[in-house]
Amino acid sequence: MNTPIKAVLMGAGNRGMTYGSYALEYPNKLKFVAVAEPIKRRREKFAQLHHISKDNIFDDWEELLAQNKLADVAVICTQDQMHTRPTLSALEKGYEILLEKPMAHTLEDCLKIVKKVEETGRILGVCHVLRYTDFFNKVNEIIESGRLGKIMNITHRENVAWYHYSHSYVRGEWANREKSSPMILAKCCHDLDLLYWFVKDLPAKICSTGSLSYFIEENAPEGAPKYCVEGCPIEESCLYYAPRIYIDIEPIIQIVQRSNKRFYKFLMKLRKDHVKFLTYLSKIIPPLKRLRYWRDWPVNYLYEDEEEDYSDEIKRRILKSSPYGKCVYQSDNNVVDHQLVQIEFSNGLTANLTMHGFSESEGRTLRIDGTKGTLKGEFMSYGENITIFDHYTGKEEIVFQKELDVSGAQHGGGDYKLLDAFIKTLTTRETASLTNAREAIESHIMAFAVDEARLQQKMVNMDIYHKKLNDI
Ligand SMILES: NC(=O)c1ccc[n+]([C@@H]2O[C@H](COP(=O)([O-])OP(=O)(O)OC[C@H]3O[C@@H](n4cnc5c(N)ncnc54)[C@H](O)[C@@H]3O)[C@@H](O)[C@H]2O)c1
Fold it and tell me: Contact 77/100 with Cβ under 8 angstroms?
């Protein structure tokens, strides 16, 4: 049996728990030996699941790093604005790092991290999980095979579903750029990373337009209270009425109803149209409680922990004061709700990226036009497929297909494959492209340039950004 890589976790929230699940599933690959997390229930739960000794449980990452080095790797899953200091300190302490994206929320901090990685000679992986999905690996493989000829243009869309956008970017953690990071960095650094990976060249010029124009106070219906449950006059018809999302789980019903799996569709019909009957059934068949009293995404954001009370009454009470209960037109949000980006790479290839928060389903769609062929891809919550159209033969071929995954595997399976790749790098010491901090920062540099281009309404020449990177 292999000896697992030993790790410490900073931030036992959603992402931390995901990487924790990997360690529980593959105990011969990864073992968490310490945790730092200020929320008691999360901290205790993580410590209990991973059998972490009392001495290695901390309220704060600083306390953890004040100890002698406890493991090989520090997995840093704190929120966006809390990445730089733990990363720099952990590098100094001798840890290799797995760092959630974005590396940091400012360019200066990203540069500091790259500098420190290079000074210390440590490995740092950034969690650009999409690179590890079967879907995007297939796209990259097709590009590299030359089947499409010379790539001339890429059109990539990040279609954020209406329910995901309102949950995360109007009511949630990433709604306010001063508290987290600009939308283009928070959500699209994955997409910019994919473009950089596909093109294999540096961006030369960038411009962008976009704004926040829908989820604003002017669009609030007359008489709408600050919190949905305070008696909103349009609660029967509002798409974003909080109980519809967090109690009736309309997003989950919509996602699953688009699948081909009859049984899951049936369960969702039961949840939507026969909730009283389901309540009764769940008393006789306890596993149905999971469906009746939903506790996974997005409802888990209302709670600190899975063990709490997920009844409708308690959820309703939480929605009276939680940010997730706020009217979407009267929230604390200021990140864009739609944005366009145009990029010209040094090799002349042009690409555009559209991000918007009004999609019927969640996912990415893309089209890559080369001199010999055209690739069309859908990486959506309802399924994935890639087709290639050969310009010479005039024939189209489906080269990749995957149905809706109801297993709960996140990011098309990318989360676990990212860990596999990171662990492989640690054991072989062969730095892969994603564990090269200079490569990982490229998507961030692009995001900061896009933000500058949009805010200042100008075309940004990327030389200035690359000079900053080269000067560190
Ligand atoms: N790779 C991806 O696709 C992906 C997806 C979602 C989120 N993210 C990123 O992952 C990071 C974490 O996101 P999340 O959804 O898990 O957030 P989260 O809020 O669920 O988790 C963050 C955790 O950090 C803890 N924390 C706060 N202060 C701390 C401290 N001083 N010491 C230790 N822990 C502390 C919080 O209590 C919380 O439990 C964010 O930067 C986010 O942008 C990445």
Answer: yes
